[in-house]
Design brief:
This protein is mainly alpha-helical. It is 68% helix and 4% strand. It contains eight helices and two strands, in the order H-H-E-E-H-H-H-H-H-H. Strands 1-2 form a two-stranded antiparallel ribbon.
Length: 276
C-alpha cells in the first residue's frame, strides 16, 4: 500500500517537473544560442537547401530557411506530432476523399504562390504582390500534406501487414484536420508574437525537419536493400539504416553548403543575407 502511494506521488511530479524543465530551457535558450553564435551556424548548416532570400525574422532571430521552406518543415513536424498524439503512427490507409482533396489543394496552393513569386522575381507582373506571410502559410499547408504522405510511405514500405492499421488514416476526419490546422495556427501566432523565446524552438524544429526528411530519404532505400521491407517490427531494426541515413544527410548538407558558397564567391549567385 505504501509502495503504491509512493509510486503515485512520483508520477504526480512528472508533469510539473517536465513543464518546469521546458520553461527553464526556453527561458535560457536565447542567451545560450547567442553565446554559441547558433544563428549563424544554423544558417550555414542549411545554406545549400534553399535561396535564403526571404527569411523570417522574429524577436531579432533570423530563421535559417526562407519563409516557405520554414513553413514546409514546421508544418511537417507539427503534423507528425499531432498524428503521434492521435495514435495514428501505424496508419496505412489514405485519408477520406474530401480530406485527401483538401491536402492536395494545400499542395496546389503552395505551388501557385511559388509560381507567383517566381514570376515577380523574373521581373514580370505577378497576380498579386508576393508576401512572406503567404509563403509561410502555404508552406505550412504543404508540410502538413507532406507529413501524411511520408508516414504512409514509411508504413506501407516497412511495416508488416499485421502491424499496419489498414483501416486507419493518418488524418481521418475534419476534426482531426482541424486539430492539425490549430497546431499550424499556433506556429503562425508564435512567429507573429515576435519573441526570441518563441522563435528559437521553431528555428530548431525547422532544422530538425530538414535533417529528418533528408535522413528518411536516404534510410528508406537502405532499409529496402537490407531486406527490411515489410519486416520492421521494432524501431531498433532501423538503427543502422537510420544512422547511415543521418550521416549521409549531414554529408549532403556540408557538400551543398560549400558548393553554394563557391557560387557566391565566384559571383554567380548574390551574397547571402548572413545573420548579424
Amino acid at each position: 500500500m505504501a509502495q503504491t502511494t509512493t509510486a503515485r506521488r512520483k508520477l504526480d511530479w512528472r508533469g510539473p517537473a517536465l513543464a518546469s524543465g521546458l520553461f527553464i530551457l526556453l527561458g535560457f535558450l536565447p542567451a545560450v544560442a547567442t553565446a554559441l553564435d547558433l544563428e549563424r551556424r544554423l544558417f550555414f548548416a542549411v545554406h545549400g537547401i534553399c535561396a535564403q532570400s526571404h527569411n523570417l525574422i522574429a524577436g531579432g532571430v533570423q530563421f535559417p530557411l526562407c519563409a516557405r521552406d520554414s513553413g514546409i518543415y514546421l508544418g511537417l513536424m507539427v503534423t507528425l506530432g499531432v498524428m503521434a498524439v492521435l495514435g495514428r503512427m501505424r496508419a496505412g490507409r489514405l485519408p477520406p476523399l474530401p480530406i485527401s482533396l483538401t491536402l492536395i489543394g494545400l499542395i496546389g496552393a503552395m505551388g501557385i504562390d511559388g509560381l507567383n513569386s517566381t514570376v515577380a522575381e523574373l521581373g514580370l507582373a505577378p497576380a498579386y504582390p508576393p508576401r512572406d506571410d503567404l509563403r509561410l502559410i502555404t508552406g505550412l499547408g504543404f508540410g502538413a500534406a507532406l507529413a501524411v504522405g511520408l508516414l504512409l510511405v514509411a508504413n506501407r514500405t516497412l511495416r508488416p501487414i499485421d502491424l499496419l492499421a489498414t483501416e486507419q488514416a493518418p488524418i481521418g476526419s475534419w476534426r482531426e484536420l482541424g486539430i492539425v490546422f490549430g497546431g499550424l495556427g499556433l506556429v503562425v501566432l508564435a512567429i507573429a508574437a515576435n519573441q526570441a523565446v518563441l522563435a528559437w524552438p521553431l528555428v530548431l524544429l525547422s532544422v530538425i525537419g530538414v535533417t529528418g526528411v533528408m535522413t528518411f530519404a536516404v534510410a528508406l532505400p537502405i532499409s529496402a536493400i537490407a531486406g527490411l521491407s515489410g519486416r520492421v517490427r521494432h524501431a531498433r531494426q532501423l538503427a543502422l539504416p537510420g544512422i547511415a541515413g543521418f550521416l549521409v544527410a549531414l554529408l549532403l548538407l556540408v557538400v551543398l553548403a560549400r558548393w553554394k558558397i563557391g557560387l557566391e564567391v565566384s559571383g554567380f549567385l548574390p551574397p547571402p543575407l548572413i545573420p548579424e
